[in-house]
Amino acid sequence: MNYILASKSPRRRELLGKLGIRFTVDPAVGEERMCGEGPEEIVQNLAEEKAREVAARHEGEQAVVIGADTVVAVDGRILGKPRDRAEMKQMMMQLQNRAHEVYTGVAIVYETGGETACHSFVQATQVRFYPVSEAEAEVYARCSDGLDKAGGYGIQSDAAVFVEGITGDYNNVVGLPVARLYHELRALGLFVPVE
Description:
This protein is an alpha/beta fold and 195 residues long.
């Protein structure tokens, strides 16, 4: 089976590796368009867009293309990647002392019976942050690697000190709900582990 990850994220690459399959990486490069009603529909559309773009480049190769996108939402409002460190600090202040949701959309594009099919799903995890002072948020924004991450933070990096708890799949917050993906691939008859 020819598996392709439609993402340049090193975190997604590492998580997909836990499935024990051989895969290549071919990131989607198209402009992301946020369309849909609410974070779940938007993130699912983004994942499908990425997977379909890459699948079109590999048409006829019997490839299984996996696309994913992750968003952070507070009260149903999406916090994307911060534009700068000032916005990252502002995001941290919005997230502190409360719960928020992390949604990852995953799309699997594959060929079946000569046709292209797309199966997608959304996984949600709730994350709760401890109180964070203005000074802590300032230091975090100045020193962290959160500029390239939804909501301005990575749970697996220096923002870990702010996480009071999670409800749901930790890997989903990192960027790929690998256990759910494993079961979805199996249900579709698309899971072939390396022997």
